[in-house]
Amino acid sequence: MRVLVGGGSGFIGHELMKLLKVKGHEVTIISRQPGLGRITWTDLESVGLPVCDAVVNLAGENILNPLRRWNKSYRSDVFNSRLKTTKTITHSITSTQTPPHCWILITGLACYRANTETLYTEDSESTTFDLWSQLVKEWEEAGRLSENAAIHTKQVVIRSGVVLGRGGGAIKQMLTPFWLGLGGTLGSGNQPFPWIHVSDLAGIIAHSLDPAHIPASSQPQVFHGVAPALNTNREFTQELGHVLKRPTLLPVPELLLRATLGHERAAILTQGQRAVPKRTLESGFQFQYPDLTSALRQIITR
Ligand SMILES: NC(=O)c1ccc[n+]([C@@H]2O[C@H](COP(=O)([O-])OP(=O)(O)OC[C@H]3O[C@@H](n4cnc5c(N)ncnc54)[C@H](OP(=O)(O)O)[C@@H]3O)[C@@H](O)[C@H]2O)c1
């Protein structure tokens, strides 16, 4: 299969590229930078979609870059990098004479109100109530194909939790303070912590490429990219400390997170959704790392 991956040069993309190549697929990255095995977003806009079987979009400005102050310009980079790349792909799929059979967009769980009680499945209603839910709404709308285009191309939206892996994402930023014994819960620690191992997220993307796993529909098939274990931030913190053999006695107060990251970004860390991968499992996907212990051991001791 020929697969085009927007943002394939990043953390999740790296793992996906490895998996797709092992499975014998041919992969081309869409990037801001030209290079071997790449096309640029400008190429895609000007020349159109190269002949391919599937397109995936992983492009997006890092939301939790600790080196960038949270302001209007950063906020607009976070939105534009996701909406513009997604719209460019949607437009290229709609315009081509040779549409791919599958279009996969990775978004997030922020379309569900964070609380400690409600259990969200892929059947739950997505709503708009704050900045992040607005982002997911606009992002998924940008990825929506017209009914005509959807006849040829199956659409998949994978709403992902926090992606855990050695090479990047949340763990990369946490390892140093945890190694130094400075790790602790974020805010109350009671908030749900929906997470997934990066190999499993890459696995769900690869699983979605198989037409047999996606019913024909004019609507996107939503999958939750979260491990089935429902954990809180406290459980995650304790397990990471346990695997690293380090204490986790220093909670990070919500006020400090708000002061350093801004209240909108702090909310990503101090709030979370209890989400389960109901449809992901029903579609036949098997998690390699369904629980925190196995996921963290693989990441830390590899
Ligand atoms: N990591 C997580 O925990 C997590 C959780 C839920 C959802 N997601 C979503 O999954 C996607 C991939 O996540 P990731 O962790 O792999 O991301 P990442 O490594 O931070 O970035 C992925 C790629 O996006 C491209 N990119 C970065 N800034 C951009 C900009 N301003 N404009 C256009 N492209 C830009 C870069 O590719 P080039 O430099 O080659 O252009 C980069 O390699 C993102 O959309 C993210 O929101 C991630």
From TrEMBL:
Q: Which Pfam families match?
A: DUF1731, Epimerase
Domain (NAD-dependent epimerase/dehydratase): residue spans on this chain = 3-210
Matching entries from InterPro entries are given as: DUF1731, Epimerase_deHydtase, NAD(P)-bd_dom_sf, SDR39U1
Q: Which residues form the signal peptide?
A: none
Domain spans labelled DUF1731: 252-299
Note the superkingdom of the native organism: Eukaryota
Q: Which residues cross the membrane?
A: none
| The protein's name in its UniProt record | Epimerase family protein SDR39U1
Organism of derivation: Silurus meridionalis
